[in-house]
Amino acid sequence: MAEKKGYPGYPGYPPQPGASGHNVTVQHTTVHQKPAPGFFGSLKSEFNKVGKQLNKEIDYCSNKLNQVVDTHAAGAMLELFKTGNVVQLVSRASGRCLEIIALQNGQLAVDGHGPSDPQAFHTHWTVTNEGSNQVRLHNNHNYLTIHNGATCLINMPPGSNHGIETKFQLSQSGQFILLESLKERQRHIGVLPDGQLKPAVACGREDHAQFGVHVIYTPYPTSNVTVVNK
C-alpha cells in the first residue's frame, strides 16, 4: 500500500443535515404533565425497575460466558488466523470483501465493498495471532481498530508498541468469523448489505458482523489450507 493509486476512487460523504448554511426548523411541543400514579401504578413501576435490573445482570453474565468460551474455542475457521497468514474477509451481508479505500481528503478508511480478486491488495489483511483467539489485522501496518464505536484504521509503523486498541477477540459462528474489539467489548466490525460499514456500537453477533475467509498467502504447509490462487 505504498502507492495510493491502487485504491479505488471515493466520492466523499454527503453534507450532514443542518450543515453548510442549511436552515434547521425547530418544532416546539407542549408537554402535558401526567397525574401522579396511584399505589398500583407505583408497584408496577418498581416491578419494571427490578425486571430491567435482572435483564442487565443476565446480559452481563451471558457476555462474560461468551468471552470465556471465545478464548478457548477451536474451529476450522479460527485455524486460518495464524501469524503471517494473509486473508480476505468476505462480508456475509454484502458478499464483498472488507477493503481499505482512500477518501478525497487523503485519509484511509474501510468499507465492505471490495472485490474478491486475490490481487486486490487493498483487501488483504495480514494476521498477528497473540493466543486465546486474539488477533491483530493490518494492511501495510494500517491496523483495524474500533474507536468510539466506529471501525477505522490506525497506522502503527514497524517497531511500535501496540496497545489493546488494535486487538480483536476472534470467534466462529458456523462457517463465519466475528471480530470483537477487546478495548470496546461487545462492539464488532460489521458491514451492511450495501457495503457500508455498520457502526460498531450497534453491531453485535448478527449477520452484519460475520465474515467468510479467503486465505491469500500462508507461510505454513498448505495441506489443510486452501490458498486462493493469484
TrEMBL record:
Residues 1-23 are annotated as: Disordered. It comes from the Eukaryota. This is Uncharacterized protein. The lineage of its organism: Eukaryota, Metazoa, Spiralia, Lophotrochozoa, Mollusca.
